[in-house]
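Final report, results section. Input specification for complex C-07:
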Amino acid sequence: MSESQYSEFCERVREMSDLGYAGGMLSWDQETCMPKRGAQARAQALGSLAGLYHERMTDPRLVDLVEELAAAGTGDDAGTNVREVRRAQQRALRLPKDLVVELSRTQSLAHEAWVEARGSDDFGQFQPWLEKLLGLQIRVAEAVGYEGSVYNAFLDEFEPYARVEEMAPLLASLRQRLVPLVAAILEQDRKADPRFTREWDVARQEAFGRQVIGDLGFDWDAGRLDVSVHPFCGGTGPDDVRLTTRYQADELTSSLFGIIHETGHGLYEQGLPRDQYGLPVCESISLGIHESQSRMWENMVGRSRAFWEHQLPRLQSFFPDELAGVSVDEMYREVNRVEASMIRVEADEVTYNLHILLRFELEQGLVAGEIAVADLPGLWNERMQEYLGICPANDAEGVLQDIHWSSGLMGYFPTYALGNLYAAQLFVAARQDLGDLDAQFARGETARLLAWLREKVHSRGKRLTASELVQDITGRPLGIDDLMSYLEKKFGEIYSL
Amino acid sequence: MSESQYSEFCERVREMSDLGYAGGMLSWDQETCMPKRGAQARAQALGSLAGLYHERMTDPRLVDLVEELAAAGTGDDAGTNVREVRRAQQRALRLPKDLVVELSRTQSLAHEAWVEARGSDDFGQFQPWLEKLLGLQIRVAEAVGYEGSVYNAFLDEFEPYARVEEMAPLLASLRQRLVPLVAAILEQDRKADPRFTREWDVARQEAFGRQVIGDLGFDWDAGRLDVSVHPFCGGTGPDDVRLTTRYQADELTSSLFGIIHETGHGLYEQGLPRDQYGLPVCESISLGIHESQSRMWENMVGRSRAFWEHQLPRLQSFFPDELAGVSVDEMYREVNRVEASMIRVEADEVTYNLHILLRFELEQGLVAGEIAVADLPGLWNERMQEYLGICPANDAEGVLQDIHWSSGLMGYFPTYALGNLYAAQLFVAARQDLGDLDAQFARGETARLLAWLREKVHSRGKRLTASELVQDITGRPLGIDDLMSYLEKKFGEIYSL
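Structure output:
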């Protein structure tokens, strides 16, 4: 591998990465700042950026460089960078630029249509956009090709090297063990603590949330927090990470756990290897691994009893009257209340994966052409009834609740369930390495866990695949046992099962 | 001119415009949102975008298209678009891409260095960056070429078709008439009304400011207002206009007039011809014409007695105790208080142009190599003493106060003085066409003036040059008489000269 070839390769890849950077900022801005009438021009601009990115990726000079570098071969970071660019390039070479641009513009406009449709609870407004988007995405899948199910072409964008043929049985076995646990818990019919049903000043919620973000080790000089309809972690790389949340005056911890979740994503981004900035090695491995970070901080840390030993008095200083007399155990039970509920992002740890399985199944039907877009609201509601025994009162709290499909993120949902599995399995390994994590959390010390994640996961960037990483850290392939044992033990105690 | 050639031309130009769009949003974000550590990657990304823009602009296919379309000739919008792209292309063809990228990255980093230097009042921190930037800009000027003074190469980016050989005498004659007026006013030594020296709640300042922006006809669905160190109007075109301001608790109207000023810019942007979006016709004519809009709204409208007849009671409803008993005449005098002051953006209408002349003169010396960057602070302070009889206590309120040089905007300042001249001359024409504007303003009616500006200026986009526009609307070339008569009459009355 010649030095000068590799450096020309890096220069070209970094330039493309900067187009992605611009796209990332425009997308963040679209969710947080952009005025209403800006949508059309935004879609146009994002489309042009996607088109230029595609053009640069498929530039014959870069194709030659990649092939020559790949043939020369190497096992270090350069090898990873070449391998990953080649992967993306092979995909891009099969796609006409027009389709890339049209898909990007349609995503951006479909997203705006979804915002409107959700606001006015009118699936019909969104339906033609989703149909159009899905049609374009299937054209993309057919163009890039896939082995096995067409769904693999979708999955590949979010969870590289994963296959639905392996994932579906894993998630099905998860469901088999989850359903009786959920049933046993819901049978207890435990009532909510009425002290938490009241108004919670939003400004104080925000102040506490910001304090927690800092406590967990997020670098405020390399990131920020804003408000958006749908919480997310965006931005452009380790030095500029954008978290968002939304506040509800009638919920004390809904925004908080969203914040901790996005902080988990943000800590991963801030820990990526900066010396490889703009190259694949400085990117996250997959969305599943990304989600393992957010879910570990949200659930295994944020919803632990030990976390609240430290944080409850701090939260009480923001809400002294409202939380007077609430004990750590009561708070712990409150933030771990299991219920059949409508909204995925507010679901507890136990029912959450059923929300995902519902979406995963509908997605597979959609892309296989077995389900029509028009039938989605009905099927959604049927499945909610079947899995959780409840039915959305309207589409805004049903099929329209999530941003994903409107943004072209079909095939993304199962990475959430994978994230829960990865998180549980990694957390078992962390406990083995770090001793009594609960005692640390109870003292407000999460720094050792963060350092461990930095070393084992974040700083390695994209050097390993998701399966390699899990095997390397835990010595085992991904399974469902760690997650299920964790859930059965924790909720078995809370619900005295 | 063939239909298909022109449509390929438009597609390519719109794609480039989208790169500019992304750059515009990244720059806005850099001023309003970006966390500190994001600066390096931002500079990198802006550099890549500038480089790609340059590459597309100088693409041989676009060069051929432009030459063929230009040779075919036409007098309509297509002709304007081809003419303006050709102008930019001729310039770009003379610039190596490396220089474009380096200039962009240096601007972005120099800007961050300026923010730091200004914050810590340390010109030394900024000096090497300004030296580097100036060196790069002179290389650019030499590469693109110029007639007459090298300063024309700088000016051309901001005030197309203008020449320093014509502008300098015009501004010198302005100075000759301004100096005795300033002296006569300052001789009165009129004391400030002590009722305005107090704390003014910032949240109420902001609420009133937002109300005024709406009153003046700004479309909130196509724009927003944020806070930045240096107020500006940015964004990406008619449907997404970003105004910024800053608030000072010890100043009632400093932020307000900044807001009205930026709203003037914003109204221009929102009024550009949307059907030509992404093409030169949908761009403003020049910074001088842009500034004529901001200055007209800020001064001829916002600092008129009639405006305050309507707005004072409204402002009093935000500050009922603080402004109890203040009359319209007192308010009018307060917002037109003339004083020798340090900060350009807070200067009154009369002394303002002297601030500009100082910068204009230093800039000419810098680019001609007659002044060294290291000597700027000293020369700045000397000149302030000479023109206004005061000397900055430190560089933060002296040579470091403005954003422009740090962002590569050398040659920009004189467009502010031109803006004042254009504004005065256009306003005389508006008065002739629209009858008693004062009576309208006193009733809170500014809509007829806006409609007139929409028709005469905004909706015409870049179809005319600045001189053509002024000639067309006022029947005369640009002069200093209208501005000076306006100032002499208004301040003659206020100061009983």
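Chain A touches chain B through 39 residues (CB under 8 Å). Chain A has a mean pLDDT of 95. This concludes the modelling results for the funded period.
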